[in-house]
Amino acid sequence: MSALNVDLKECVRVTTPLAVREKSAAEMLGVSVSLLRKWRVYGGGPKFVKMGGAAVCYRVADLHSYIAALSSREVV
Predict the structure, then answer these.
(1) What is the DSSP-derived secondary structure letter of residue 9?
(2) Helix H or strand E segment including 57
(3) All domains of the chain, ordered by start, with CATH?
(4) From the CB of residue 25, how many other CB atoms can be counted at a distance below 10 Å?
(5) Measured at the alpha carbon of residue 46, what is the angle toward residues 54 and 53, in degrees to the nearest 5?
(6) Cα distance between residue 56 and residue 29, in whole Å
(7) Predicted pLDDT of residue 31
C-alpha cells in the first residue's frame, strides 16, 4: 500500500486537545491553580477563554506561546 493510499485503521490517532481547563494549564506551567486565578484577575498570565458561564479554558497554543515568551526574556 502506498503512502497516499493508507488504510485509515493504520493511521495513528492524534489526541492533543486544542484547549485545557485551568488544572491542566497549571500543571503545564508548573504553577498552582490559585496563581492562574490571580493572573486572570490582576494580569500577567497566559491568555484565557471563558466558555459559557464560569468555565475557563486555556488554548494549548497560547500556553506554549506564554512559555516561549518567558524563556526568551533576558535576565538582568
Answers:
(1) G
(2) strand 55-59
(3) 17-72 (1.10.10)
(4) 24
(5) 10
(6) 16
(7) 96
Q: Which amino acid is at 28?
A: M
Q: Report the length, in residues, of the chain.
A: 76
In the sheet that 49-51 helps form, which strands lie side by side, from edge to edge? 19-21, 55-59, 49-51
pTM summary value: 0.72
Q: Which residues are registered as beta bridge partners of 49?
A: 57
pLDDT digits (tens, 9 = 90+) for 6-64: 555 555 555 778 999 999 999 999 999 999 999 999 998 999 999 888 889 999 999 99
Residue type, 9: K
Amino acid at 8: L
State the Cα–Cα distance between residues 35 and 39, nearest whole angstrom: 6
Sequential DSSP letters for 10-22: GSPPP---SEEEH
